[in-house]
Design a protein that fits this description.
- The structure is a single chain.
- This protein has 2 helices and 10 strands.
- The two termini are 26 Å apart.
- 27% of the residues are buried.
Length: 114
């Protein structure tokens, strides 16, 4: 199992489970959507496996972030980290109860299955 130390200083490895409140992921420097196919759980960015975000303008992306946070923000989630990609990003699946977060984003039109 390969471990990665993130900026928070917490080691995270593939096949680990993260638990905590879920929020839309915004870039820490400017607060803009970096990717609507990622979420933040336990202060970690998780790129949702098998999901790509829909391309949209910055204005629409900001609206989408607000809508995502209004829909799922602050709810307890469980993310299973499936792998760490070549750029060091955590990838995995996240659920709120029985609902898959990737499916929620796809149904809302913010992402699509790849």
């Amino acid at each position: 199992m390969t471990a990665l130390t993130l900026c928070a200083g917490l080691p995270v490895a593939a096949a680990e489970t993260l638990r905590g409140e879920i929020w839309a992921y915004v870039h820490p420097d400017d607060g803009y959507a970096e990717a609507l196919d990622s979420v933040r759980v336990a202060d970690q960015r998780v790129r949702l496996a098998n999901i790509d975000n829909v391309q949209m303008s910055d204005r629409d992306a900001r609206r989408a972030l607000r809508a995502i946070d209004n829909s799922i923000g602050g709810k307890p989630a469980v993310c299973r980290i499936t792998h760490i990609d070549g750029k060091g990003r955590l990838n995995g699946t996240c659920k709120i109860g029985q609902w898959d977060v990737g499916d929620i984003l796809v149904k809302a039109g913010y992402a699509f299955h790849r």
